[in-house]
Specification:
By secondary structure, this protein is an all-alpha fold. It is built from 8 helices and 2 strands; from the N terminus they run H-H-E-H-H-H-E-H-H-H. Helix 6 packs antiparallel against helix 7. The longest helix has 23 residues, at 143-165.
Length: 218
C-alpha cells in the first residue's frame, strides 16, 4: 500500500475532509440538520435555486463519525493507490468530475426535505475508473491486477446492493459516480504509468453515502 506522502493529492483531500468534519462537530451539525444544510448539504431544489456551490461542498461533509471514518478509509485505500499508479492529475480530474456528477444526480433525485452529504460518490468514481485504467495499463495481464480488479468489482456490486436495500442510502449518487468513473477510465488519454508502487493486493471497501433525514426527524 502506498504511503500518504507518496500520494499528496489524496493526502490533501483527506486533510480537508477531516478539517471540515471537525468544523461540523464544533458547530453541532451532528445534532442539528439545519446546521449541516447551512454548511452545504445537497437539498431538494439545489439546482433549481442555482445553489451550485452545494454540489462541491457536500463532497467534503459527512453525516456522522462512522460515515466520515469509513469514507476516509476507503478514500485512503483507493485514492492513494490510484494516484501512485496513474498520477496526480488523472486522480484529481476523476475525483472531482465523478464527485460532481454524483452530486448532480443526488440533487435531481432528492425529495423535499431531504439532504445528502459525503465523499462516496467520488470514491465510487475512483473505483470505476480503476477498472478500465488497469485494463488499459501495462499490468493488465499481471495476476495481482486481476485480483485487484475482482476485488473492485466485488465491493462495488456489494455496496450498490446495500444501497438498493436501505432507503437512507443515496444509491443514485453511487451509481452516477461509478458510471462516470468507468467512462473516464475508458476515455481519458492513456499514458504509460510509472512502475507499480506495490504488488500487494488491498481490500477496497467504498462506503455508502447516507442521505440525512428530513429536518423534522431526529
Amino acid at each position: 500500500m502506498p504511503r500518504l506522502k507518496d500520494s499528496p493529492v489524496t493526502t490533501a483531500i483527506l486533510a480537508i475532509i477531516t478539517i471540515v468534519f471537525l468544523a461540523e462537530v464544533f458547530r453541532g451539525a451532528m445534532k442539528d440538520n439545519d446546521v449541516l444544510v447551512g454548511m452545504g448539504a445537497i437539498i431538494h431544489g439545489t439546482i433549481a435555486n442555482h445553489e451550485y456551490w452545494r454540489l462541491l461542498a457536500a463532497m467534503f461533509l459527512h453525516g456522522g463519525w462512522v460515515h466520515w471514518l469509513v469514507n476516509s478509509w476507503a478514500l485512503y485505500q483507493l485514492g492513494s493507490l490510484y494516484e501512485a499508479m496513474f498520477g496526480k492529475v488523472r486522480f484529481l480530474v476523476i475525483y472531482f468530475v465523478t464527485g460532481l456528477c454524483a452530486s448532480v444526480a443526488s440533487a435531481m433525485n432528492l425529495a423535499v426535505g431531504g439532504a445528502s452529504v459525503g465523499a462516496s460518490g467520488a470514491i465510487f468514481g475512483i473505483l470505476g475508473a480503476f477498472i478500465f485504467s488497469i485494463r488499459r495499463s501495462q499490468w493488465r495481464h499481471e495476476p495481482w491486477t486481476r485480483g485487484l480488479t475482482r476485488q473492485l468489482v466485488f465491493w462495488g456490486l456489494l455496496n450498490l446492493a446495500a444501497g438498493a436495500s436501505f432507503a437512507f442510502i443515496d444509491n443514485t449518487a453511487h451509481v452516477a459516480g461509478l458510471l462516470s468513473g468507468l467512462l473516464l477510465g475508458l476515455v481519458l488519454p492513456h499514458r504509460l504509468p510509472p512502475p507499480p508502487p506495490t504488488r500487494q493486493i488491498i481490500d477496497v471497501q467504498p462506503y455508502d453515502d447516507s442521505p440525512l433525514p428530513p429536518p423534522n426527524q431526529a
